[in-house]
Amino acid sequence: MSTAPTTPPTDQPGARRRMGWRILLVVSLTLNLLVLGLVIGAKWGDHRDHGFDARGPNRGAIRDLGFAPMAGALDRKDRREIGKALRAQSGSFAENRRALEAEFQSMLSALRADPFDAGALLAVMDGQAERLRQRGDLARTALVDRIERMSAEERRAFADRVEKSVRKRAP
């Protein structure tokens, strides 16, 4: 009789459950790190030089999509105008929150499905990525439209502020 431990075959139901828990753990860890990064960025990001209102209604619409240097270089009026354009094109916060909640429920269903269907989870994640891509496209378009309406002098001053913002953050 052998005393060596045996490993269970991967096609058993217990192995599938463990794989589901691993995926859930990875998704949870990723979301936690994302939130931590946002909190740290918000805490130590220096927006005071640009009149950024951290409590304002449009605080994350542009910044969170990777436009931080440009968003910080915009004045308050421009940020509000861009925020209004985004809301007009992509719906209200409540509408977007309902869609996010539905996607979250779909993700939970895919994670809890037995047998686990990786394709279903991937489809939900692809939908989330597409929503972010569309939101980014809208933000870029709104930003470029606003810049297009600037005078040459305003645009040069804006470029100077963007450059200052990037240089300030560079290591």
What does this protein structure show overall?
Helix content is 71%, strand content 0%. It is mainly α and 171 residues long. The longest helix is centred in the first third of the chain and has 32 residues, at 13-44. It has 6 helices and no strands.
Strand residue content: under 5%
The biggest sheet, with number of strands, parallel, antiparallel or mixed sense and barrel status, is: none
Poorly predicted ranges (pLDDT <50, ≥5 residues)?
A: 47-55, 61-65
Computed structural class:
mainly alpha
Q: What average pLDDT do the residues reach? A: 75
Instruction: State the helicity in percent bands.
Output: over 70%
Radius of gyration: 22 Å
| N-to-C SSE string, H for helix and E for strand | HHHHHH
Number of helices: 6
How many strand elements?
0
Distance, first to last CA:
63 Å
Outline, from the CA principal axes?
elongated
Helices and strands, with pairings:
Layout: H1 13-44, H2 68-73, H3 76-90, H4 93-112, H5 118-148, H6 152-169
Helix pairs in contact: 3-5, 4-5
Q: Can you tag this structure with a few keywords?
A:
171 residues, mainly alpha
Quick overview of this protein structure:
About 70% of the residues lie in helices and about 0% in strands. With about 170 residues, the chain is an all-alpha fold.
